[in-house]
Design goal:
The chain has 153 residues and is mainly beta. The protein is 5% helix and 61% strand. A hairpin with a 4-residue loop joins strand 5 and strand 6.
Length: 153
């Protein structure tokens, strides 16, 4: 008999973002690039910052649904670094999605925002994260994305 996986909290991230770069409606949907400018990360017994230079490559597929594909680097207080590739889906009613695209604040309960981050690191203490699956939840603020990552046990 198989048991359902459980989740263990791994980290909380607050990722600062800049004004979106609007590409427009391309052949696959509305394309946007959201520059990542910094932020913080807090784990259990460790903390650090989000380095500037990453980006979230968004594709608004329908008035309700967006695929998000973010790439960025975390730098721990120890100086060790973690490369993050975070794919997500965000779904909301069309009027809520339109408000998000305009950068307006919205009630997080009106948005389904789930992600699946993967990691690469040379950190001896966190090397294990490259060998595990994680899922997360997110909240989009006008200039910030708040996320909680969970290890799938």
């Amino acid at each position: 008999m198989h048991t359902a996986p459980t989740l263990k909290h791994f980290a909380e991230l607050k990722v600062k973002v800049d004004t979106p770069q609007e590409i427009g409606h391309a052949q696959h949907g509305q394309r946007r690039v959201i520059p990542i400018t910094g932020g913080t990360v807090e784990g259990h017994g460790w903390s650090g910052k989000v380095l500037s230079g990453g980006a979230d490559y968004q594709l608004i597929l329908t008035p309700r649904m967006a695929n998000l594909d973010a790439h960025y680097v975390l730098e721990l207080d120890s100086g060790e670094r973690i490369y993050v590739h975070n794919r997500a889906i965000r779904v909301a009613e069309p009027e809520i999605t339109a408000r998000l695209i305009k950068g307006e604040p919205v009630d997080p309960s009106e948005i389904y925002f789930r992600c699946s981050p993967t990691f690469e690191t040379d950190s001896l203490s966190l090397k294990w994260i490259c060998e595990r699956m994680f899922i997360g939840t997110g909240i989009r603020r006008p200039d910030l994305v708040e996320m909680h990552f969970f290890e799938v046990l």
